[in-house]
Amino acid sequence: QVQLMESGGGLVQAGGSLRLSCAASGSTFSINAMGWYRQAPGNQRELVAVITRGGTINYADAVKGRFTISRDNAKNTVYLQMNSLKPEDTAVYYCNVHWKPSTGLSRHYWGQGTQVTVSS
Known about the structure:
Layout: E1 2-7, E2 10-13, E3 18-26, E4 31-39, E5 46-51, E6 57-59, E7 67-72, E8 77-82, E9 91-99, E10 107-110, E11 114-119
Parallel strand pairs: 2-11
Antiparallel strand pairs: 1-3, 3-8, 4-5, 4-9, 5-6, 7-8, 9-10, 9-11
């Protein structure tokens, strides 16, 4: 299995920046995609960004051009650089890992979540 440790959340003013980090441990050799989701009060959890082991990236339209996802495969860590933050970015951000061993089994692991609050 995989354990995820998130960090980097906090309180920031509109227009500011934060960088989230998520370090994976355990059976990291089977990790394929790593990504970030967020959930604001009263809303569904939504995909923010995802990056595969090979570097393919997808962003939600709401964050495209402002957020950048990256990963360091050697460190088993995924990052989310968030610039030009807006109050509507306020949410709990969750790291997510797609774990797919060679046996064909597949599952997702979730971080505990980190609060990002953007003041207006």
